[in-house]
Every structure is written in structure tokens, then in C-alpha cells.
Amino acid sequence: MATETVSSSFTEIYDSLPYYDDDLQKYPELKEKVDREMARELVQPTSLHPNVPPPIQLFSNNPLLKAELQRVEANQSFPPLDSLRYQLPTPTSTPGTIQEWKEALDNAHAQLQHQRIRQNNLALLQTYGPNAWRIQNYLLEETKKQTEKAAEELVQLTVEVNRDRKNTQDRSGKQLTQLETRWTELISSVLQIEMANVALDAEINRLNQREAELAEL
């Protein structure tokens, strides 16, 4: 219960009020120190930190993908597509052997089946493609609207948070300034009272000494 009471009564303590503090404007030498420190921090290190893990070797278990990644990193052009599958080559020898004619016939069957699949795909696309395209565009538009709305709400929330932070810091800064001024006044009053006490002590000592002298006479 005591912990809950302390937690519920705890208030945030700000040790910096960037919206209110103007020390950099008041003290140019302080601004120079800050600029030098920022310039030092912005210098890029020449080596990685020891805690940074070594680079990851991608596709170490897949030679094909690793070779493709190396080709992309080397800015090499993609190898030309093999167009032989789209052709109907005849046997090179005259007359061709049975094996050559068999391979040519198998290739012709494969090309014919490929054309049939393309024709079916085109028919399906012509039948269902327009509606699928419209639905996809509608979904993309809705996603775009939702994303833009979320971005606007986030920007507005950020502005409100910054405004509230600025107002809070302004109020806290003014209160701190008033307390600091009051503290200075109290310290000055205490010093004046102490000086008055010292003067009174000196006066009392002088009067006591004078009383002792008169008693002797």
C-alpha cells in the first residue's frame, strides 16, 4: 500500500526545459562548447565498435542465390534469356536420326502445350481480369486513404504533444523563475538579518564594555 501511495503521488521532475531555457543565448561561451561537442560527436568513426557483430554472409547454403547476389553487387548485366525453348529446331543432320526427330517432336509437343496454356490464361484474364483489376485498385485506394488519414492523425498528435510540452515547460519555467527570485530575496533577507545581528552584537559588546568602565569609575 505504501508503494502504491508513493507511486500515485509521484510527479515528474524535469531537469531540462528546452522550450524555456535560454542559457545558450545568455552565455555565448557555453554555446561554443556545445557546438564543439556536437562537431566532435558528428565525426564518423573509422572502425566499427567491438560489440558490433561481423557482417552476415547471405545465402551461404544456397550457391545459386549467392552467385546471383554477387552478380548484382558487381553490377553485371542479367544473362540473356534462352529463347531456344520458343523455337522449333529441326535435326541438324540430313537426313536426321531417329533420336533427333524424337527430340524435335517432343519440343513441338511442349511448344503446343505451352501455347494452349497461354490461350487459357488469356481467356481467364479476359473474363475475370477487369473485375479483379478494379477490385485491386479499390483496395489500394482504400489503403492509401487509411494510410494518409493515419499519417495526418499522427502529425496532429505530434503537434499537440509538442504544444502541451511547450506549455508545460513554460509554466514550469516561470514557476522555477519565481521560486528562484523568491529564494534570492530570502537569501538576501537572511544576509541582511545576519549583518544586523553582527552589528547588534558589536553594539552590545561596546555597551557592556562601557558599562564595565563606568562601574570601575
Automatic annotation (TrEMBL):
Residue ranges of coiled coil: 98-160
Compartments where located: Nucleus
Alphabetized UniProt keyword annotations: Coiled coil, mRNA processing, mRNA splicing, Nucleus, Spliceosome
Organism expressing this protein natively: Laccaria amethystina LaAM-08-1
Name of the molecule in the record: Pre-mRNA-splicing factor SPF27
Domain of life per record: Eukaryota
Stated family: Belongs to the SPF27 family.
GO cellular component: catalytic step 2 spliceosome; precatalytic spliceosome; Prp19 complex
Entry-linked InterPro entries: SPF27
GO BP, sorted A to Z: mRNA processing; RNA splicing
Pfam families cross-referenced by the UniProt entry: BCAS2
